[in-house]
Amino acid sequence: MNNDEHFMLLALEEAKKAAAINEIPVGAVIADAGGNIIGAGYNLTEQKNSPLKHAELIAIEQAAQALNSRRLTDCTIYVSLEPCPMCACAISNARIKRLVYGAFDEKGGACASLFNLYDYPVNHKPMVRSRVLEAECGAVLSEFFRKLRDGD
Which of 9, 18, 39, 88 is least buried, going by the fewest C-beta atoms within 10 A? Predict the structure, then answer.
C-alpha cells in the first residue's frame, strides 16, 4: 500500500462517518509534508443546514487553523469523491500542492467529470491524481444511495 492509498483509507473512514448520520458519504483528510494529518472532515450539509459544510471545506479550515495560515502550500488533500466547483476553488485558493481523489462525480465533479476547473487560468493549480481506491470510494456512495432508495 502506498501513501496515497493509506490516506485515502482515512478519507473513506471520514466518509463513513457521514453515511452514519445520513449525510452523503464524502470524506477528506489533509496531510502536511511530513505525513501528519492536520485536517479532516466529512459532509455535514444536512446536519448544519449549510451548503458550505462539504468535507473538503471542513478539512481545509482545520488545516489552516493547525498551520495558522491560509496557505497550505506543502499539503495534500485526499477526498473520497471528486471535488465540486466550490471545493475545487477552495483547494486552489488554499494553494494546496496536491489533490488526490477516489471516485469520479459525473454530475458535479469539477476536476475531470463535468469539467476541469484547473484547465482555466486560475491562480493555483494543484497536482491532481484520481482513481485512488476508486472502487472502494464508489462502493461507499453506491451503498448509501441504494439504502436511501430502498428506505433502509
Answer: 9
Does 23 qualify as catalytic in the annotation?
no
Q: Which residues of 5-20 are buried (b: 16+ CB within 10 A; e: fewer)?
A: eebbbbbbebbbbbbe
List the catalytic residue out of 13, 14, 23, 56: 56
CA angle 80-83-57, nearest 5°? 90
47 vs 132: CA distance, rounded Å: 28
The 10s digit of each residue's pLDDT in 47-106 is 999 999 999 999 999 999 999 999 999 999 999 999 999 999 999 999 999 999 999 999
